[in-house]
Design brief:
Chain lengths: 302, 521
């Protein structure tokens, strides 16, 4: 894997000449102009939603003058709303996201360990199967998932439709292929000499895995866990099909139903909800940016 | 090896009683659930699933109890979820595509007959009046009925009438152990529920139901329909029309009218033939298919072009403030996509949206309601969502190009544009090709960036299925299966299979080209 390489300072012919401030402005001024335009494109939806969330206007029409009035009314009324159980959605998203992240990372790491460290018949076939299966995104089978959970719910009501456990199980099945493959590559970079040394000291395979290998591959575990978390936060298709009751829904499904009828939608309440939901994700992302981009490109770029 | 090693080893092994216990407890819980599942499957007569579950459970137990099968111990937890929720669901999609599974065809035939019989009840003209007391247990309501011969019977919607020992007041059964007798005011409060309550007289729907209008006396109701098990027909006793099972998945009258609910049957290739032969389905399917390819391709190309342009723009060490720009550019990528798509949807609203009203000074441009403009809009939104990633990727790839190559070209007299077009771009395309391909695959099924912005709309009213002008295949599957009056799971699954086939052919071609699978070892 070769993630983006750290920027190198290098000598560009034009810039290497001794230049005064005027020439420099001419050289980089247009770059700033274009960069500012692009920044505006990147930022204005985000500024718009921030402004709307602070404007006690209400609907779409009332939200079109940026930062004219500023107040936190929307935040307080959304958090105390009877009609929109925002905090429940938030909690559901967190519970589902965190459980999925931890569980899918663990079972993915277990499988990756076996593929990376053990030699057995069917190993190559297994890896091939994983690569092939992950070609087919799970949401293609959303109809079958819905009907399967419907029938599971008949026998085990706590695992069927409209349950968080059911949804988490579906996510675990869908994420395994790509997670295992990502981690497999990383596991291979850990020298096997370490395992062998531990084995000679008498450690069993489980001890080697849990106390030695897992610590050495911590970066990829963090990436996979974060990607799984973001995936389940973002998922609308499967969550909207599985979670029926308003109180069971995640942020994606709940907020969507809040504004799906645009005309009378409580737009500024939605904006407040969007800002609150995004802040933790954005902060987490900016901190771990380097790892995420590296993780996304790992296995793809050689 | 020194003498301390065996002791250390035995200490390490000796400490493994905890994990062993954990293993046994977890296997025990799993097996208990499996036994329960197996018994339920047996009573339902689902022998095929019974066999699969039994074999699977035995295999899992063997893996964890045997001393061998070390790799399987690690792979099994993931494999179970993968097998059920990824592999099985794909197979199940194939199965559903060959059935008529849809609204009105979700039941089995026996269930459908029960449902039909209980749907059309009318009061037996000479029904005696049964004194009843309404009793409650938890959420469940029941009738405590006094028969003409003085015995007390208890029954609820699920439980047919059964003789019980009750307390009598003035010859009327008024209370029974385990149930609370409702007072008159309570009865008034749940009048609607009470009107809907039909208590079966016996196990067979043919014998009819007891219903009450006032909570004090009940009358016998029977179905207008009469089921004849020998001929397998339903007869409407009011009109004398005979409905028979003509293997269409519903009881059908001689004039072709059907009684719903029907039941699930295997319809063979029917869903596929409908998809290619009915013009009101084939038309939308074709343009959705074309648009899916156009959308995925343009999304990748536009995002890559803008990302690369920015990477080059910022790849000048003399430029100040590059770090700040970089953070700003990454923000759209960091912001949760499900939220930004909904925000864009609001901003693009024709009459009230920010873009028309503020940025364009009150213009009424139909961003989301005109078929062509809606396509442009979803592409712009997806460009906004996708360019930061391409910016990060191309920045990395650009910096990985060796300096010497560029210098050599410059020395040979190549202009900066020639250096870019003939040297940098080809090198970039080679190193980012896998990312471009996976990005195409992602956008091919980028449900959120379509559905949360336009819901696939503007709606195409000439089509027989819920479809719009910006729908891609995956949003079409979702809409056919879960929105609209008629949820057609069979047809939606047939569409899913079409997508499977497309993806499989593209992947097969790619693998042959790149020989990627041969690298796996």
């Amino acid at each position: 894997m070769s993630a983006p390489v750290a920027p190198k300072t290098r000598v560009v012919p034009v810039a290497s000449r001794r230049v005064g401030p005027v020439q420099r402005l001419r050289a980089t001024g247009w770059r700033h102009l274009v960069a500012l335009l692009l920044s505006a494109f990147a930022l204005f939806p985000l500024l718009y939603v921030l402004s709307t969330s602070l404007n006690p206007g209400g609907t779409l029409t009332g939200s079109n003058h940026l930062f004219q009035t500023v107040g936190f009314d929307n935040y307080t009324s959304l958090l105390s709303s009877d009609q929109y159980p925002y905090l429940t959605w938030f909690r559901n998203s967190l519970v589902i996201g965190l459980t999925t992240a931890v569980a899918s990372t663990l079972i993915g790491a277990l499988a990756a360990y076996a593929f990376s460290r053990m030699r057995f018949t069917g190993r190559r076939m297994g890896l091939l199967a994983i690569v092939l299966v992950q070609m087919f995104p799970q949401l293609l089978a959303v109809v079958a998932i819905f009907l399967l959970l419907l029938q599971i719910g008949d026998i085990f009501p706590s695992l069927g439709l409209n349950t968080h456990l059911g949804l988490i199980m579906v996510y675990l099945g869908g994420a395994l292929g790509v997670n295992t493959y990502l981690m497999y590559g990383f596991f291979n970079t850990v020298p096997t000499a370490i395992d062998e040394a531990a084995k000679i000291d008498g450690a069993g395979h489980a001890r080697i895995f849990f106390t030695i290998i897992l610590r050495l591959v911590a970066p990829i575990l963090a990436v996979v866990a974060l990607l799984s978390f973001i995936f389940s936060m973002n998922d609308f298709v499967i969550a909207s099909v599985v979670l029926v009751d308003v109180d069971k829904q995640t942020l994606a499904v709940g907020l969507y139903h809040m504004v799906s009828n645009q005309r009378g939608a409580p737009w500024s309440l939605f904006a407040a909800g969007a800002v609150m939901a995004s802040i933790p994700v954005v902060i987490l992302f900016l901190f771990l940016q380097k790892y995420i981009v590296g993780g996304l490109t790992a296995g793809a770029v050689k | 090896m020194d003498t301390t090693t065996p002791t250390r080893a035995s200490v390490l092994r000796g400490s493994s009683i905890g994990p062993l216990l954990l293993k046994i407890v977890m296997l025990g819980i799993l097996d208990a659930a499996v036994v329960f599942l197996l018994m339920t499957l047996l009573t339902r007569g689902s022998y095929a699933i019974f066999g699969v579950v039994l074999v699977g459970a035995l295999a899992v137990n063997w893996v964890y109890l045997s001393k061998r099968a070390m790799p399987a111990k690690y792979i099994t937890p993931g494999l179970v979820f993968l097998a059920v929720f990824q592999v099985f669901t794909i197979l199940y999609t194939f199965y559903i595509a060959f059935t008529n599974y849809s609204t009105g065809h979700v039941l089995t035939k026996d269930q459908a007959i029960e449902a039909l019989l209980s749907q059309s009840q009318s009061r037996v003209p000479d029904s005696p009046q049964y004194p009843v007391t309404v009793v409650q247990q938890g959420d469940q309501l029941a009738f405590l009925v006094t028969e003409p011969d003085g015995t007390a019977m208890l029954g609820s919607a699920e439980q047919p009438l059964e003789q019980v020992d009750a307390t009598f007041t003035d010859g009327k059964a008024t209370a029974v152990d385990g149930w609370t007798t409702l007072q008159f005011t309570e009865i008034l409060a749940m009048q609607d529920e009470l009107f809907d309550l039909a208590v079966p007289v016996s196990d067979t729907a043919m014998d009819g139901w007891l219903r009450t209008l006032d909570g004090r006396s009940a009358f016998q109701y029977i179905s207008d329909l009469e089921y004849d098990p020998q001929a397998d027909t339903l007869t409407n006793t009011a009109t004398d029309v005979v409905y028979s099972d003509t293997s269409l998945g519903a009881f059908t009258a001689p004039d072709g009218s059907q009684m719903l609910p029907g039941w699930q049957i295997n319809v063979g290739l029917d869903n596929f033939t409908r998809a290619v032969s009915e013009p009101t389905i084939r038309g939308p399917l074709v343009y959705v298919l074309i648009w899916t390819f156009v959308y995925a391709t343009l999304s990748v190309v536009l995002a890559f072009a803008l990302g690369l342009f920015m990477a080059i723009l910022f790849n000048n060490p003399k430029m100040k403030g590059r770090k700040v720009y970089r953070i700003i550019m990454v923000l759209p990528y960091a912001f949760p996509a499900f939220l930004s798509t909904m925000i864009w949807s609001g901003m693009l609203n024709t009459r009230f949206g920010f873009i028309n009203e503020t940025l364009l000074g009150g213009a009424e441009i139909p961003w989301l309601t005109d078929p062509t403009l809606a396509k442009v809009s979803v592409l712009i939104v997806n460009l906004w969502l996708g360019f930061p990633y391409m910016f990060l990727v191309t920045t990395g790839a650009l910096q990985a190009i060796p300096e010497e190559v560029v210098e050599a070209a410059t020395t040979d007299g190549a202009s900066p544009w020639q250096v870019f077009r003939l040297i940098k771009l080809p090198l970039l395309l080679v190193s980012t090709a896998p990312i471009l391909i996976s990005s195409f695959a992602f956008n091919f099924n980028n449900f959120n960036a379509i559905y949360l912005v336009t819901e696939g709309g503007p709606v195409d009213r000439s089509a027989a299925i819920p479809v719009g002008h910006t729908d891609i295949l995956i949003s079409l599957v979702y809409k056919v299966a879960f929105t609209g009056q008629n949820r057609d799971y069979g047809l939606a699954s047939a569409f899913s299979i079409i997508i499977f086939v497309i993806i499989a052919s593209i992947s097969a071609y790619m693998f042959r080209k790149t020989k990627m699978l041969e690298d796996i070892n």
